[in-house]
Fold this sequence. Notes:
Blueprint: E1 6-7, H1 11-17, E2 21-24, E3 28-34, E4 41-45, H2 53-74, E5 79-85, H3 94-109
Amino acid sequence: MSGRPQGMTRRADYLAANRGVRVARPGFVLLARPNGGEAMRYGITVTKRIGNAVVRNRMKRRFRELLWSILPEKGLAGYDHVLIGRETGIERDFDALRGELIAALDRARAGKGDPPRRPRKRK
C-alpha cells in the first residue's frame, strides 16, 4: 500500500475505534477497528492530563510523523488506527516509539488486544 493514510475527523469514528482491539504500550495506547472497507485511517488523542498545549501539540506531531512513516507498510488495511498519548510518551525516544508501534500493530493484526478498560463510575 502506498501513500499517506487519511486522518479521522469525526468524533463518532473515535468512539467506534474504542470498541475495537486495544493494545497498551508504555508511550501510547493503540486502538484498531475495521472501518467497513474504507481506506486506512488514523487518529491521535492527547488529553489535557498530559501537559500544556505546547507539550500536547509536540506529542501529536511526533505521533503523526510516526504513523505516516509506519502505517503505509505495517498498518492494517481497511482499519481505523487511533493513538492515545500516555504521559511516559512525551520524552520517549522516537526509535523506541517506532518499535512499540510496530509491535502493537502486529498484536492488533493477530487479534491479541489487551483486556477492555473498566467502565468509569459516574458521580
